[in-house]
Amino acid sequence: MTDWGYDYLIKLLALGDSSVGKTTFLYRYTDHKFNRRFTTTVGIDFREKRVVRTGADGMTENNFRIHLQLDGTQFRSLTTAFFRDARGFLLMFDLTNQQSFLNVRNWMSQLQANAYCDNPDIVLVGMKADLRNLRDVHGRQARDLVDRYRQHGLLPLTKSTKNKNTEQCEDE
């Protein structure tokens, strides 16, 4: 881990089924790199990104630490511990895989059961937006899900790790 000074440490946890693009998103967001090859992450992957924002006080530095949780029963007990410190969550699904979208409800239930933060920020992230011709999840479905969980702070975002909307997650 990099030893940066910071004013705020904000821990985010990415949740979603295997193969939705969590690792790809993580590396694109922190290192600005896109890898076309799929590799399964074993365990937990940690990345950090330093984000500097100018606040009313002059200069406020935010150091985002993103924790990646995997969909694997062998990691369930290990990963639920990471809910404790998380202040924000990325609920991720693959826009070309309807089942990964339907499973967002399960991830939301797990989040609600395990999050220690009273009012965490939650962003629904639809991955692989660049594969329009293979899209299996449509805008109306995502909007309905956001409406269902809006009182829990859920915000929508579709994204392609190739080049668009990665930085927008940070702003959301």
Describe this structure in words.
The chain is of the alpha/beta class and 172 residues long. The protein has one domain (8-171): P-loop containing nucleotide triphosphate hydrolases (Rossmann fold), CATH 3.40.50.300. Helix content is 28%, strand content 27%. It is built from six helices and six strands; from the N terminus they run E-H-E-E-H-E-H-H-E-H-E-H. It has helices spanning 22-31, 76-80, 98-102, 104-114, 139-149, 166-171; strands spanning 8-15, 45-53, 60-68, 88-94, 121-127, 154-159. The protein has a six-stranded mixed β-sheet, sandwiched between helices. The longest helix has 11 residues, at 104-114. The two termini are 25 Å apart. The model is unreliable at 166-172 (pLDDT under 50). It is an enzyme of class 3 (hydrolase). InterPro entries: P-loop_NTPase (IPR027417), Small_GTPase (IPR001806), Small_GTPase_Rab (IPR050305). It catalyses: GTP + H2O = GDP + phosphate + H(+). One of its GO terms (cellular component) is membrane. This is small monomeric GTPase.
